[in-house]
Design brief:
Layout: H1 10-16, E1 17-22, E2 34-35, E3 44-48, H2 51-63, E4 68-73, E5 78-83, H3 88-91
Antiparallel strand pairs: 1-3, 2-4, 3-5, 4-5
C-alpha cells in the first residue's frame, strides 16, 4: 500500500469546504435530504464539493483526533462531513 504525506493547516481545511454551520437536533426535520441518515450528536457540519475534498478534509480531521461521519446532501448535491471539530471561525 502506498502512503502519501501531506502537511495541512486549518486554513487549508477551510479552503476545501464551502459552507459550515452548527449541527444538531434541529436538523432532524430535514433528515430525508441526507444519504445515509446522519447522526445528530455532532457539533459542526462542513460541506465539500467533491470526494477528493472529503478525503483531504477527513485526513486533516484525523490529525486533529476528530471522528467524522460523511453523508451525501441531496439539497446541496455535495458531501457533508459531520464532526465535533471547531474551526477558529467558530471559536471567535
Amino acid at each position: 500500500m502506498s502512503e502519501i504525506k501531506l502537511h495541512m493547516i486549518e486554513e487549508d481545511f477551510e479552503n476545501l469546504i464551502h459552507t459550515s454551520m452548527p449541527w444538531g437536533g434541529h436538523w432532524i426535520e430535514q433528515v430525508g435530504r441526507f444519504d445515509p441518515q446522519p447522526m445528530f450528536h455532532w457539533r459542526y457540519a462542513y460541506w465539500v464539493d467533491n470526494f477528493m475534498g472529503v478525503l483531504l478534509c477527513r485526513a486533516y480531521l484525523t490529525t486533529q483526533n476528530c471522528e467524522t461521519q460523511t453523508v451525501w446532501d441531496r439539497a446541496f448535491n455535495c458531501y457533508l462531513i459531520l464532526a465535533n471539530y471547531e474551526l477558529q471561525t467558530w471559536r471567535s
